[in-house]
Amino acid sequence: xxxxxxxxxxxxxxxxxxxxxxxxxxxxxxxxxxxxxxxxxxxxxxxxxxxxxxxxxxxxxxxxxxxxxxxxxxxxxxxxxxxxxxxxxxxxxxxxxxxxxxxxxxxxxxxxxxxxxxxxxxxxxxxxxxxxxxxxxxxxxxxxxxxxxxxxxxxxxxxxxxxxxxxxxxxxxxxxxxxxxxxxxxxxxxxxxxxxxxxxxxxxxxxxxxxxxxxxxxxxxxxxxxxxxxxxxxxxxxxxxxxxxxxxxxxxxxxxxxxxxxxxxxxxxxxxxxxxxxxxxxxxxxxxxxxxxxxxxxxxxxxxxxxxxxxxxxxxxxxxxxxxxxxxxxxxxxxxxxxxxxxxxxxxxxxxxxxxxxxxxxxxxxxxxxxxxxxxxxxxxxxxxxxxxxxxxxxxxxxxxxxxxxxxxxxxxxxxxxxxxxxxxxxxxxxxxx
Length: 434
Hints:
The protein is of the alpha/beta class.
């Protein structure tokens, strides 16, 4: 399908000095064909009026657990380990593939509605999540959550599920579905399973590792007491940071040596400000990490610890929180904030050659933002407006891989009403058993 967006403002995110340009944009099939001026020879099948809109790259949620929308507003006001052990893990034991599928779809509704076109997943029920992503039209890196010692039957079975999932799903949906491996965290994974994960990823092209790292002080202190080193130092010793891509969620408590290791191995940190704040985990030193040359992307975490997956809200919180933590209003400028949710996220997912910026030849992953709301006026600095003023409800249209997923706030690939009804029943069923 050929789509033309006319008379729009366009934030390409290619270089800051370019700022926002005005003009038209053409999509041919999956790809961006023209930006600024579109030749008369391009005949569109569909024309979209971009007047008083801003076209931005589709936002990228680099760390989430989509089926956990089932647990939204359940188990609140708890610290991380208490939240996991007393509430979440017991509830997850009662979930099934149906919960995984519909919970993932509910999260994808939120993601699309907040301008998100791609996400990095770590959870169970990966086949159901992949099916939901395929149907939704979104782009997804999906990793099977892994725990254990690499010897007992359960940990070996889960690892094999991840390997089988890779062979079945990697590259599906015209390349939209990619498969990573998801060792949950250093405190739930012993050396044996981590070494087996490394071997598996080394044998599978384009795969990566998605892990939680240094989320709480308790985690870091426990690692030092047990292993004599921080979690990041332990991962380096095991060889987790090698030639493959590693996405490390959180990075709240990092030593100077930890940051040096992350930079050395090009490990991608994913900042999850809302989840870290709600669970009282702490404040990630985002500006400091970025200034040291580490790529920092943005994530929402799951709906049970956030309690939403609204990427626009996360963008705003990340920006203002980083300034407060650094005690410097200049610490994270607006353009750098937006990079976290676009090109930095694309790098974390290993797809920055395809998405993350608006360039001819890249995939057409775009969000069209309605700038008619009062909070957009006066329209002085549109880059600042995206970082500090934009609301999720401003997202009017969303395109992924050249396909419209939402038009004029109407979802085109998911039945919002039926998914909401189904998740309500499933949530009641799961939580009433606890």
